[in-house]
Amino acid sequence: AEPPRITVPVAGPFAANNSEALRDAALGGLGIALLPDFSAQAPLQSGRLVEVLPGWEPVGAFGEHLFAIRPYAPHVPRAVSVFVAWLREAFAGGFGPRAEGGRQ
Predict the structure, then answer these.
(1) Which helix (H) or strand (E) holds 16?
(2) In this predicted model, what pLDDT tens digit does every residue of 52-89 receive, in sequence order?
(3) CA atoms 87, 91, 97, 102: torsion sign
(4) Is 38 helix (H, G, I), strand (E, B) or coil?
(5) Which residues contact 16 (CB under 8 A, 6 or more apart)?
(6) Whole-model pTM over 0.85
(7) Based on the number of CB atoms within 10 Å of its own CB, is 23 exposed (0-12), middle (13-18) or buried (19 or more)?
(8) What's the pLDDT at 98?
(9) What's the Cα-to-Cα distance from 75 to each of 24, 81, 94, rounded to whole Å?
(10) In the prediction, which pLDDT does 80 show?
(11) Which residues, 6 or more positions from 88, have their beta carbon under 8 angstroms from its beta carbon?
(12) How far apart are CA 84 and CA 92, in angstroms?
């Protein structure tokens, strides 16, 4: 059976849509942050950050989507199109430790 899902509304004096800004705020003592592995890995390994909810998984946009962002251009370079197509195929089954063949 799947564990129950609990929704917790979050509000506070600081919000950002940039993982580095959120990481730096957490490192500065402003509170906890939902961070991607690539942003949290070094501070976790050095002990500057501590994982507080190891069994928790985000649900929704933060946990289920990957965005490829590029500068605007009227023509998308072929290398970018091919790379995005590869990402779509590589992550078609999802990503993370639960995905088939996923890496953490």
Answers:
(1) none
(2) 988 877 776 566 677 788 888 899 999 999 999 998 89
(3) negative
(4) helix
(5) 22, 25
(6) no
(7) buried
(8) 46
(9) 35, 10, 29
(10) 92
(11) none
(12) 12
Q: For residue 22, with 0-12 CB atoms within 10 Å meaning exposed, 13-18 middle and 19 or more buried, which class applies?
A: buried
Q: What is the DSSP string of 41-69?
A: HHHHHHTSS--S-TT----SHHHH-----
- Separation of alpha carbons 94 and 2, rounded Å: 18
pLDDT confidence tier of residue 97, bands split at 50, 70 and 90: low
| Residues across the chain | 104
Query: Is residue 27 within 8 Å of residue 48, measured between CB atoms?
Result: yes
| Lookup: tokens for 89 | 């195929």
C-beta of residue 20 within 8 angstroms of C-beta of residue 39: yes
Q: Which amino acid is at 40?
A: A
Residue with tokens 């501590």: 50
* Domain segments of the chain as ranges: 1-53, 66-104
